[in-house]
Amino acid sequence: MNRFPIAACLPFLLLAACGRTEPVADMPSQEELAAAANAAAAEALAAQQSDEGLDSLNYVNAARGFAVTLPEGWVKDEGASNADGIVYEDPGAGADVRVFWQKNDGDQTLQQIVETVSDGAEGVDGDFIGDNEYRGTANDGEGNNVAVRLLRQPDGSIVTATFVYPEMLSEQYQSISDALLRSLRLLPTAGAATPDAAPAAAANAATAEQP
Questions:
Q1: Going by C-beta distance under 8 Å and a sequence separation of 6 or more, which residues neighbour residue 76?
Q2: Can you give the pLDDT at residue 43?
Q3: CA 53 → CA 41, 46, 68, 109, 204, distances in Å?
Q4: What does R_g of the chain's alpha carbons equal in angstroms?
Q5: Alpha-carbon span 18 to 210, nearest angstrom
Q6: What is the pLDDT of residues 187-208, one digit of tens each?
Q7: What are the structural domains of the chain?
Q8: Kind of pairing, strands 96-102 and 75-76?
Q9: Would you state the pLDDT for residue 159?
Q10: pLDDT digits (tens, 9 = 90+) for 52-99
Q11: What's the pLDDT at 81?
């Protein structure tokens, strides 16, 4: 399945893992303690909901500060997924969803990022919701519809979800796409908090570990 130009144009969708060097100290820093607490809270949320028998698949990335609910029965693309996000595919129809975090090195505004995306895509139509959220749709010119949602975190980093599906199956996938993009939420990260709460985690919840 051909990828939509948004995926090619957005630097925050690159699947490169970032290296990290931990400082040596006798006691953990306040940032480390906060990160550990947030990770534990996300894991506790998933564990709490695991006893309720929910049917949806919830992905929680406590390290990168976001969570999203995925369609039941979709399959994870292990090769394309990493510590920054995930790719899930519908094995029967050629649809997929990609949700990734990326550091915003240039500290661009969401408006600047969307302008870059629009320059490399066809028929992009969308709206800003405040200064830190964007929702849009487009067509890749090869028979696929694309729905996208961008969230800018308090530290400037970006979380992006793109849902790609065959145009001829719009009736089948439109409601799935809308529900999935609505489920994308930011989680508190070390030293910052957001008003958005994570969606309820599911029985088969997956939690990403800090790289």
A1: 86, 87, 88
A2: 56
A3: 20, 12, 18, 40, 9
A4: 17
A5: 11
A6: 986 544 444 444 444 444 455 5
A7: 30-207 (3.40.1000.10)
A8: unpaired
A9: 97
A10: 333 468 999 999 999 999 999 999 999 999 999 999 999 888 899 999
A11: 97
If DSSP states are collapsed to H, E and C, what string results for the chain? CCCCHHHHHCHHHCCCCCCCCCCCCCCCCHHHHHHHHHHHHHHHHHHHHHCCCCCCEEEEECCCCEEEEECCCCEECCCCCECCEEEEECCCCCCEEEEEEECCCCCCCHHHHHHHHHHCCEEEEEEECCCCEEEEEEECCCCEEEEEEEEECCCCCEEEEEEEEEHHHHHHHHHHHHHHHHHCEECCECCECCCCCCCCCCCCCEECCCC
Strands 206-207, 57-61: pairing kind: parallel
Sheet holding 75-76, edge to edge: 75-76, 85-89, 96-102, 158-166, 144-152, 133-139, 122-128
Q: Which tens digit of pLDDT belongs to each residue from 30-51?
A: 566 556 655 555 554 444 444 3
Specify the pLDDT at position 142. 87
